[in-house]
Amino acid sequence: MLNYKLSPLFNQWIGFDKLANNIQDDREEIGYPPYNIEKNDDNHYSITIALAGFTKEGLSIELEGPRLTIKGKPVLENTEIHYLHQGMVCKEFSLSFTLAEHMTVKKANFAYGLLQIQLERHIPESMQPRHITISDNSKQNSVLQDRSLDIK
């Protein structure tokens, strides 16, 4: 039997936590660039991407419908470098995330080699949970019983 890992799919869907938690059992291997997705509360999320060697000018963030795409192109020097060991990667990338309904990008900040994108869920008033009061029908029933006695 073939086993398919769905965890890479669910790490790209922000705001679908319950669905992802029910299906995802293990963590995926982190690709390039490494990133974290944090859930601050039910309506606030943040994505932090480690981008050593990038500048703000080499980054772009686009939101098209529910699709958030982050692209980066490093500005590389023309000098040829001979590495004895190269452990840091600085290459062009494109990351995409599918946002849940009513998710918006609040702001983006790039400092100290970290790109942080703040996301917020704005649920319309008509779709927010509301409290329904339950009336007490015992008083109405006693009034109806009194009326039925009057009719006889």
UniProtKB/TrEMBL annotation:
<feature type="region of interest" description="Disordered">
    <location>
        <begin position="131"/>
        <end position="152"/>
    </location>
</feature>
<dbReference type="Pfam" id="PF00011">
    <property type="entry name" value="HSP20"/>
</dbReference>
<feature type="domain" description="SHSP">
    <location>
        <begin position="26"/>
        <end position="137"/>
    </location>
</feature>
<keyword id="KW-0346">Stress response</keyword>
<comment type="similarity">
    <text>Belongs to the small heat shock protein (HSP20) family.</text>
</comment>
<keyword id="KW-0143">Chaperone</keyword>
<dbReference type="InterPro" id="IPR037913">
    <property type="entry name" value="ACD_IbpA/B"/>
</dbReference>
<dbReference type="InterPro" id="IPR002068">
    <property type="entry name" value="A-crystallin/Hsp20_dom"/>
</dbReference>
<feature type="compositionally biased region" description="Polar residues">
    <location>
        <begin position="134"/>
        <end position="145"/>
    </location>
</feature>
<dbReference type="InterPro" id="IPR008978">
    <property type="entry name" value="HSP20-like_chaperone"/>
</dbReference>
<protein>
    <submittedName>
        <fullName>Small heat shock protein IbpB</fullName>
    </submittedName>
</protein>
